[in-house]
Amino acid sequence: MRKKYIIILFTCFGLFLLLPALPEKASLTSVFRLTEEPATIVRGTSGSTLTVNISFGDDEVEQWIRGIESPYPLLFIDMDWAGRFPETIKLIKKKNIPVGLLGSEGATYEQNTPLFMDQVKRFEKLFKKKPLWFRTADEQFPLTLQRALWEAEVNALGSTVVYIGGETPPIVEGEIISVPHHRENRIVLTELKKLADGRTFKPLEDVLFGVTVKTKKIPE
Asked: Fewer CB near the terminus (10 Å): N or C of the chain?
Protein backbone atom coordinates (compact mmCIF):
# COMPACT_ATOMS: atom_id res chain seq x y z
CA MET A 1 0.00 0.00 0.00
CA ARG A 2 2.83 2.37 0.89
CA LYS A 3 4.44 1.69 -2.47
CA LYS A 4 1.14 2.58 -4.19
CA TYR A 5 0.98 5.93 -2.40
CA ILE A 6 4.57 6.71 -3.39
CA ILE A 7 3.77 6.02 -7.08
CA ILE A 8 0.69 8.29 -6.92
CA LEU A 9 2.72 11.02 -5.24
CA PHE A 10 5.42 10.96 -7.93
CA THR A 11 2.77 10.93 -10.68
CA CYS A 12 1.06 14.02 -9.25
CA PHE A 13 4.43 15.76 -8.85
CA GLY A 14 5.28 15.05 -12.48
CA LEU A 15 1.97 16.51 -13.66
CA PHE A 16 2.60 19.60 -11.54
CA LEU A 17 5.94 20.14 -13.28
CA LEU A 18 4.27 19.89 -16.67
CA LEU A 19 1.59 22.51 -15.96
CA PRO A 20 3.72 25.58 -16.85
CA ALA A 21 4.39 24.07 -20.26
CA LEU A 22 0.70 23.66 -21.09
CA PRO A 23 -0.86 26.37 -23.30
CA GLU A 24 -3.19 28.88 -21.74
CA LYS A 25 -6.88 28.15 -22.07
CA ALA A 26 -8.06 29.34 -25.46
CA SER A 27 -11.47 29.63 -27.06
CA LEU A 28 -12.44 26.99 -29.59
CA THR A 29 -12.35 29.57 -32.34
CA SER A 30 -8.70 30.38 -31.73
CA VAL A 31 -7.73 26.88 -32.80
CA PHE A 32 -10.14 25.71 -35.48
CA ARG A 33 -11.62 26.97 -38.70
CA LEU A 34 -15.36 27.35 -38.26
CA THR A 35 -16.41 26.11 -41.68
CA GLU A 36 -15.59 22.91 -43.55
CA GLU A 37 -15.03 24.75 -46.85
CA PRO A 38 -14.57 28.36 -47.99
CA ALA A 39 -17.63 30.27 -46.76
CA THR A 40 -18.73 33.47 -45.05
CA ILE A 41 -20.27 33.37 -41.58
CA VAL A 42 -23.22 35.74 -41.27
CA ARG A 43 -25.18 34.39 -38.30
CA GLY A 44 -24.73 32.45 -35.09
CA THR A 45 -27.02 30.17 -33.09
CA SER A 46 -28.33 32.34 -30.24
CA GLY A 47 -28.23 35.85 -28.80
CA SER A 48 -26.77 39.00 -30.35
CA THR A 49 -23.22 40.16 -30.91
CA LEU A 50 -21.92 43.58 -31.91
CA THR A 51 -19.11 44.24 -34.37
CA VAL A 52 -17.76 47.67 -35.33
CA ASN A 53 -15.77 48.42 -38.50
CA ILE A 54 -13.28 51.24 -37.92
CA SER A 55 -11.40 53.02 -40.69
CA PHE A 56 -11.98 56.62 -39.63
CA GLY A 57 -12.09 58.75 -36.47
CA ASP A 58 -9.79 60.18 -33.86
CA ASP A 59 -10.97 61.51 -30.50
CA GLU A 60 -14.51 60.17 -30.87
CA VAL A 61 -13.26 56.62 -31.36
CA GLU A 62 -10.70 56.86 -28.57
CA GLN A 63 -13.25 58.19 -26.06
CA TRP A 64 -15.75 55.52 -27.02
CA ILE A 65 -13.16 52.78 -26.57
CA ARG A 66 -12.23 54.19 -23.16
CA GLY A 67 -15.85 53.99 -22.08
CA ILE A 68 -16.89 50.52 -23.24
CA GLU A 69 -16.84 47.60 -20.84
CA SER A 70 -16.69 43.83 -21.14
CA PRO A 71 -18.16 41.94 -22.91
CA TYR A 72 -16.58 44.04 -25.64
CA PRO A 73 -17.71 44.26 -29.25
CA LEU A 74 -15.44 42.80 -31.89
CA LEU A 75 -13.57 45.65 -33.58
CA PHE A 76 -12.60 45.26 -37.23
CA ILE A 77 -9.55 47.47 -37.68
CA ASP A 78 -8.36 49.03 -40.94
CA MET A 79 -4.56 48.86 -41.04
CA ASP A 80 -4.08 52.34 -42.52
CA TRP A 81 -6.23 53.80 -39.75
CA ALA A 82 -4.30 51.80 -37.14
CA GLY A 83 -1.04 53.27 -38.39
CA ARG A 84 -2.35 56.80 -37.91
CA PHE A 85 -3.56 56.30 -34.36
CA PRO A 86 -1.04 54.15 -32.44
CA GLU A 87 -2.20 55.45 -29.05
CA THR A 88 -5.73 54.21 -29.69
CA ILE A 89 -4.32 50.84 -30.71
CA LYS A 90 -2.36 50.71 -27.45
CA LEU A 91 -5.60 51.35 -25.58
CA ILE A 92 -7.34 48.53 -27.45
CA LYS A 93 -4.49 46.18 -26.55
CA LYS A 94 -4.45 47.33 -22.92
CA LYS A 95 -8.17 46.62 -22.53
CA ASN A 96 -7.77 43.32 -24.40
CA ILE A 97 -10.61 44.16 -26.76
CA PRO A 98 -11.06 41.50 -29.48
CA VAL A 99 -10.00 42.65 -32.92
CA GLY A 100 -10.34 41.43 -36.48
CA LEU A 101 -8.84 42.62 -39.75
CA LEU A 102 -10.89 45.06 -41.84
CA GLY A 103 -9.95 44.86 -45.48
CA SER A 104 -10.72 46.77 -48.64
CA GLU A 105 -13.83 46.37 -50.78
CA GLY A 106 -14.31 42.80 -51.93
CA ALA A 107 -13.79 43.43 -55.65
CA THR A 108 -10.31 44.80 -54.92
CA TYR A 109 -9.02 41.30 -54.16
CA GLU A 110 -10.07 39.94 -57.55
CA GLN A 111 -7.59 42.32 -59.17
CA ASN A 112 -4.98 42.24 -56.40
CA THR A 113 -4.82 38.80 -54.76
CA PRO A 114 -1.59 39.43 -52.76
CA LEU A 115 -3.24 42.40 -51.01
CA PHE A 116 -4.96 40.14 -48.49
CA MET A 117 -1.72 38.52 -47.31
CA ASP A 118 -0.03 41.93 -47.11
CA GLN A 119 -2.81 43.12 -44.81
CA VAL A 120 -2.54 39.96 -42.72
CA LYS A 121 1.20 40.54 -42.26
CA ARG A 122 0.59 44.13 -41.16
CA PHE A 123 -1.99 42.91 -38.66
CA GLU A 124 0.40 40.28 -37.30
CA LYS A 125 3.17 42.85 -36.92
CA LEU A 126 0.88 45.20 -35.02
CA PHE A 127 -1.03 42.76 -32.81
CA LYS A 128 1.58 39.97 -32.59
CA LYS A 129 -0.92 37.35 -33.76
CA LYS A 130 -2.72 36.27 -36.90
CA PRO A 131 -6.25 37.64 -37.29
CA LEU A 132 -8.93 35.07 -36.57
CA TRP A 133 -11.60 37.17 -38.28
CA PHE A 134 -11.60 39.09 -41.57
CA ARG A 135 -14.24 41.36 -43.09
CA THR A 136 -14.17 43.39 -46.28
CA ALA A 137 -15.27 47.01 -46.16
CA ASP A 138 -18.45 46.23 -48.12
CA GLU A 139 -18.92 42.69 -46.73
CA GLN A 140 -18.52 41.20 -50.20
CA PHE A 141 -16.33 38.10 -50.37
CA PRO A 142 -15.50 36.98 -53.94
CA LEU A 143 -14.54 33.34 -54.38
CA THR A 144 -10.85 34.10 -54.88
CA LEU A 145 -10.80 35.89 -51.53
CA GLN A 146 -12.70 33.10 -49.80
CA ARG A 147 -10.11 30.62 -51.02
CA ALA A 148 -7.26 32.83 -49.80
CA LEU A 149 -8.93 33.12 -46.40
CA TRP A 150 -9.36 29.35 -46.26
CA GLU A 151 -5.70 28.72 -47.06
CA ALA A 152 -4.62 31.27 -44.42
CA GLU A 153 -6.97 29.73 -41.82
CA VAL A 154 -8.74 33.05 -41.28
CA ASN A 155 -12.53 33.13 -40.94
CA ALA A 156 -14.64 35.36 -43.20
CA LEU A 157 -17.23 37.17 -41.10
CA GLY A 158 -20.10 39.07 -42.64
CA SER A 159 -23.16 40.14 -40.68
CA THR A 160 -26.84 39.46 -40.26
CA VAL A 161 -27.71 43.14 -40.25
CA VAL A 162 -25.86 46.44 -40.79
CA TYR A 163 -26.90 49.23 -38.43
CA ILE A 164 -26.31 52.79 -39.66
CA GLY A 165 -28.29 54.62 -37.00
CA GLY A 166 -31.90 55.64 -36.59
CA GLU A 167 -34.59 53.09 -35.84
CA THR A 168 -33.18 49.90 -34.39
CA PRO A 169 -33.75 46.67 -36.32
CA PRO A 170 -35.88 43.86 -34.86
CA ILE A 171 -33.99 41.28 -32.83
CA VAL A 172 -32.96 38.17 -34.75
CA GLU A 173 -31.73 35.16 -32.79
CA GLY A 174 -28.04 34.57 -33.44
CA GLU A 175 -27.62 37.96 -35.09
CA ILE A 176 -24.22 39.43 -35.92
CA ILE A 177 -24.68 43.20 -36.05
CA SER A 178 -22.23 45.27 -38.09
CA VAL A 179 -21.75 49.00 -37.44
CA PRO A 180 -19.69 50.99 -39.96
CA HIS A 181 -17.46 53.84 -38.89
CA HIS A 182 -15.86 55.14 -42.09
CA ARG A 183 -15.29 58.63 -43.41
CA GLU A 184 -18.31 58.56 -45.73
CA ASN A 185 -20.48 56.14 -43.79
CA ARG A 186 -20.60 56.25 -40.01
CA ILE A 187 -22.85 56.79 -37.03
CA VAL A 188 -22.26 58.65 -33.80
CA LEU A 189 -20.87 55.88 -31.62
CA THR A 190 -22.94 56.95 -28.63
CA GLU A 191 -26.00 55.84 -30.64
CA LEU A 192 -24.98 52.29 -29.83
CA LYS A 193 -26.75 52.76 -26.49
CA LYS A 194 -30.01 52.87 -28.42
CA LEU A 195 -29.08 49.71 -30.31
CA ALA A 196 -28.38 47.89 -27.06
CA ASP A 197 -31.82 48.58 -25.58
CA GLY A 198 -33.57 45.25 -25.22
CA ARG A 199 -30.53 43.30 -26.36
CA THR A 200 -28.02 41.30 -24.36
CA PHE A 201 -24.81 41.57 -26.31
CA LYS A 202 -22.51 38.57 -26.05
CA PRO A 203 -19.01 37.87 -27.33
CA LEU A 204 -19.00 36.52 -30.87
CA GLU A 205 -17.89 33.06 -29.74
CA ASP A 206 -20.90 32.77 -27.43
CA VAL A 207 -23.30 33.64 -30.25
CA LEU A 208 -21.66 31.20 -32.65
CA PHE A 209 -21.54 28.29 -30.22
CA GLY A 210 -24.73 28.99 -28.28
CA VAL A 211 -23.06 29.62 -24.92
CA THR A 212 -25.40 31.33 -22.45
CA VAL A 213 -24.22 34.29 -20.39
CA LYS A 214 -26.15 36.37 -17.86
CA THR A 215 -24.29 39.67 -18.02
CA LYS A 216 -25.84 42.53 -19.93
CA LYS A 217 -23.65 45.42 -20.98
CA ILE A 218 -24.65 48.49 -22.95
CA PRO A 219 -22.01 50.29 -25.06
CA GLU A 220 -21.07 53.63 -23.56
From this structure: N
R_g (Cα) of the chain, nearest Å: 20
DSSP secondary structure code for residue 190 in this structure: G
46 near 174, Cβ under 8 Å? yes
Q: In 3-state terms, what secondary structure has residue 41?
A: strand
- All residues at 6 or more sequence positions from 39 whose CB lies less than 8 Å from its CB, including other chains: 146, 156
> What does the pLDDT look like over 8-41, one tens digit per residue?
333 333 433 333 333 333 333 343 456 666 789 9
User: Over the stretch 178-220, which tens digit does the pLDDT of each residue have?
Assistant: 999 888 877 877 778 888 887 889 999 999 987 443 333 334 4
Task: Give per-residue pLDDT as tens, 52-102.
Answer: 999 998 998 999 999 998 999 999 999 999 999 999 999 999 999 999 999
- What are the residues whose beta carbons fall under 8 Å from the beta carbon of 141, sequence distance 6 or more? 40, 106, 149, 156, 158
* One CATH from 3.30.420.40, 2.60.200.30, 3.20.20.370, 3.30.1050.10 for 46-209: 3.20.20.370
Q: Which residues of 51-65 are buried (b: 16+ CB within 10 A; e: fewer)?
A: bbbbbbbeeebeebb
